[in-house]
Amino acid sequence: MAQAVEEWYRQMPIITRSYLTAAVVTTVGCSLEIISPYHLYLNPKLVVQQYEIWRLVTNFLYFRKMDLDFLFHMFFLARYCKLLEENSFRGRTADFFYMLLFGATTLTGIVLVGGMIPYVSETFARILFLSNSLTFMMVYVWSKHNPFIHMSFLGLFTFTAAYLPWVLLGFSILVGSSTWVDLLGMIAGHVYYFLEDVYPKMTGRRPLKTPSFIKALFADDNVVVAPPNAGIAARLGLGAVGPHLHDD
Predict the structure, then answer these.
(1) What's the domain count of the chain?
(2) How many CB atoms lie within 10 A of CB 78?
(3) pLDDT digits over 166-191, tens only?
(4) Cα(138)–Cα(9) distance, rounded to whole angstroms?
């Protein structure tokens, strides 16, 4: 069993493995009181006035207490981050890293701007960690890249992957979780999808072109990526989606 887990971990692409490791280490460290969450959460005043720049990163690594919700998000992180990096971004590690960087920046910007808007500022002020939102963003982007995969929810009803974010949002409402976390992830994911996949087809311009200094950090293989509609049969065999979801 341990050998199988080790093999599964080693086979993960670099960005997925690094993010998953950092998230687990940070969350476990906080649970064991080795690290204090008070040193990790997003606090604009401390970032600007005390130069605690690391908070812009660490708030995406802590997934609260280690419970079923933590395992659920770790599964989603390991699954959809891995699927995106291995398929949609195959041979484009720098572009995938830039997607996460763009998502993290967008989420941070939304929270900071929302904190200055009357009537909603109190709601945004309570959002201290954006790790769940970034995970949800990856789920949203994956669903946009694989909209025709058939899924079912608890065996109760079936749907295509295009509706996966909305199904999960509905599930969050049913269990009483905060919907803002999911909605922020959907907004960031849609902004990225529009600028990267829709806008270039409309105008011929690509506003989210990965900067050369980021590309220099990664040595990608020259891999030919199949077009979105190719290999449907292969994508249909991706396996289980999550604790409550599975592909038909």
Answers:
(1) 1
(2) 20
(3) 988 888 788 777 788 889 999 999 99
(4) 19
CATH number at residue 26: 1.20.1540.10
Structural domain including 215 reads 2-247
Torsion angle in degrees (nearest 10) through CA of 107, 108, 110, 114: 140
pLDDT tens-digit readout, 2-17: 778 788 888 899 999 9
C-beta of residue 197 within 8 angstroms of C-beta of residue 147: no
Rounded Cα gap, residues 172 and 167, in angstroms: 9
Q: How far is CA 42 from CA 109, 115, 181, in A?
A: 11, 12, 14
Would you say 231 and 133 are in contact if contact means Cβ atoms under 8 Å apart? no
| Terminal-residue alpha carbon distance, the chain | 27
3-state secondary structure at position 203: helix
What is the DSSP track for 69-128?
HHHHHHHHIIIIIHHIIIIITTT-HHHHHHHHHHHHHHHHHHHHHHTTSTTTHHHHHT--
Q: In angstroms, rounded to a whole number, what is the distance separating the alpha carbons of residues 188 and 194?
A: 10
